[in-house]
Amino acid sequence: MNAECQVLLSEKVERELNKLPIQITKKFRTWIRYVEFYGILETRLIKGFHDEPLKGQRKGQRSIRLNKAYRAIYIELPNNEIQIIKVIEVHKHDY
After folding, report:
1. Is the distance from CB of 13 to CB of 87 less than 8 angstroms?
2. pTM to 2 decimals?
3. Beta partners for 62?
4. Secondary structure letter of residue 59 according to DSSP
5. Of 3.10.100.10, 3.30.70.100, 3.30.2310.20, 3.40.109.10, which CATH number belongs to 5-92?
6. Of all helices (H) and strands (E), which one includes residue 72?
7. Per-residue pLDDT tens for 41-72?
């Protein structure tokens, strides 16, 4: 177990979560459990999530893949005691 992490969901994500396909919700909740247990740095090493920094207007944000189409976008919030990860969007990725 690494540095203590807490995952927060934006209001938008909370509202949209029930509208997502069940397999997307399951993988998203699995990612949350990994982050809260192992920490964000260890979870980034799991290839199945394809965690990557974003560029351009989204610089400072990161995304994970929930499947080929869906992504979750998150940011890391500064905190002295624990690392806070805030998920700001879960959406279908446009190609």
Report:
1. yes
2. 0.89
3. 53, 74
4. T
5. 3.30.2310.20
6. strand 70-77
7. 999 999 999 999 999 999 999 999 999 999 99
